[in-house]
């Protein structure tokens, strides 16, 4: 009988890279090795996707006091924290009872907040807790607490694994490497793009960004770079695939105001969430990923599989996703001048970006198949169950 692994997804209302990682995992896991059960605090597109795969889903709502987004949750007073802890205790007791009834042998936490939320229940139920680490951000005491609550962890890149091992050497032996992978054929096969639908000429160079409209993804840096590049490259277009979570609506409003002249000129396109991402990547000549915080940078590999070079920041995962000067450029974090320069180099030199695009595609097709991610995560979860 394969072990039952309960997968907790703390943000079922979104379909970002982390959610798609899990959906792809569920599409390709080996049922002879483990039996997944999905646990979520509420309904949403993620829950709909996994239910469509025929997997069992349990909705276990958080108390309203704990259901806010991370920043709002942590910004309160000491008294707010005391109230939150008081709400967490009875919820944890109920969840521990459910974990025992479900005969869970591993509890998967999709991020740091999930570890802190689930930790007490996991210990009460005596169920090993696995933390899937997907960011290189240092959260100080929260990371220290999460390290003590988890049984094992899996880092999505060598950069993230090494960063956490340096900061928490006592727990380094518990942090596995769970490399990301993608369904390569989905992104590398030829097909239609979005140029005609967006009114972009066939020969116009296109620079695009993929990600949530948040400061973490550096979307403001991309807007600044586009404004600086537009006069020098009057044929260039700039695309953004993604939208703002509710907590960042004001940030999105500011971005759109700054980009308004380019939007009115028909050269800056904010598409929201794009259903056909392979078509989006086929539209691009260059990908920008100026994230201030990252764990891997899955968009870089998806774009690379489509033959698109990237200019990305030196945040987590850059040593794996981008071969400097060969498949793209790596620039310092939060450096809009370096970002603008890197994008300008590729915009000015079509043979260079085509050569880098071919190299990026070879690199992606050789190193980032989905099967390696599925196998590595399965092995890490089984090790946690032992």
Number of structurally distinct domains: 2
How does the helix and strand content classify structurally? alpha/beta
The biggest beta sheet reads: 7 strands, parallel
Overall 3D geometry? globular
**Over the alpha carbons, how many angstroms does the gyration radius reach?**
21 Å
| pLDDT averaged over residues | 94
Tell me the span between the first and last alpha carbons: 14 Å
CATH superfamily of the largest domain: Glycogen Phosphorylase B
Helix fraction, binned, reads: 40-55%
Oligomer: single chain
Q: How many distinct helices?
A: 17
Q: What is the CATH level 1 assignment of the largest domain? A: Alpha Beta
Q: What is the CATH architecture descriptor of the largest domain?
A: 3-Layer(aba) Sandwich
**Beta-strand residue fraction:** 5-15%
Q: What is the strand and helix layout of this fold?
A:
Layout: E1 4-8, H1 17-28, E2 35-40, H2 45-52, E3 57-59, H3 70-74, H4 78-101, E4 106-109, H5 112-125, E5 129-133, H6 141-149, E6 152-155, H7 158-167, E7 175-177, H8 184-188, H9 195-198, E8 206-210, H10 219-229, E9 237-241, H11 249-264, E10 268-270, H12 277-283, E11 286-289, H13 298-305, E12 310-313, H14 318-321, E13 328-331, H15 336-348, H16 350-367, H17 370-385
Parallel strand pairs: 1-2, 1-4, 2-3, 4-5, 5-6, 6-7, 8-9, 8-11, 9-10, 11-12, 12-13
Helix pairs in contact: 4-5, 5-6, 10-11, 10-15, 13-16
């Amino acid at each position: 009988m394969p072990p039952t692994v309960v997968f907790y997804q703390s943000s079922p209302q979104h379909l970002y890279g982390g959610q798609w990682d899990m959906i792809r995992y569920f599409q390709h896991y080996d049922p002879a090795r483990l039996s997944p059960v999905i646990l979520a605090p509420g309904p949403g597109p993620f829950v709909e996707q996994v239910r469509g795969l025929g997997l069992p889903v349990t909705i276990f709502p958080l108390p309203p006091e704990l259901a806010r987004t991370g920043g709002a949750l942590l910004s309160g007073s000491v008294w707010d924290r005391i109230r939150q802890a008081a709400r967490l205790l009875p919820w944890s007791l109920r969840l521990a009872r459910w974990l025992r009834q479900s005969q869970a042998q591993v509890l998967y936490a999709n991020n740091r907040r999930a570890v802190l939320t689930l930790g007490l229940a996991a210990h009460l139920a005596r169920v090993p807790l696995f933390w899937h680490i997907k960011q290189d951000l240092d959260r100080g005491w929260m990371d220290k607490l999460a390290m003590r609550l988890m049984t094992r962890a899996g880092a999505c890149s060598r950069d993230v694994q090494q960063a956490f091992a340096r900061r928490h050497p006592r727990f380094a032996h518990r942090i596995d490497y769970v490399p990301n992978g993608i369904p390569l054929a989905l992104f590398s096969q030829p097909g239609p793009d979005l140029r005609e639908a967006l009114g972009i000429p066939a020969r116009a160079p296109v620079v695009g960004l993929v990600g949530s409209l948040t400061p973490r993804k550096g979307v403001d840096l991309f807007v600044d770079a586009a404004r600086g590049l537009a006069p020098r490259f009057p044929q260039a277009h700039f695309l953004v695939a993604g939208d703002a979570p509710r907590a960042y609506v004001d940030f999105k409003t500011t971005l759109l105001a700054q980009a308004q002249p380019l939007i009115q000129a028909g050269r800056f396109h904010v598409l929201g969430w794009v259903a056909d991402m392979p078509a989006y990547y086929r539209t691009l000549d260059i990908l920008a990923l100026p994230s201030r915080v990252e764990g891997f940078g899955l968009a870089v590999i998806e774009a690379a599989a489509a033959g698109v070079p990237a200019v990305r920041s030196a945040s987590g995962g850059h040593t794996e996703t981008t071969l400097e000067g060969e498949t793209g450029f790596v620039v310092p974090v939060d450096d809009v001048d370096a970002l603008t320069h890197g994008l300008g180099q590729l915009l000015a030199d079509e043979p260079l970006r085509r050569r880098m695009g071919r190299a990026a595609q070879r690199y992606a097709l050789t190193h980032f198949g989905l099967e390696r991610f599925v196998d590595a995560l399965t092995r890490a979860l089984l090790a946690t169950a032992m």
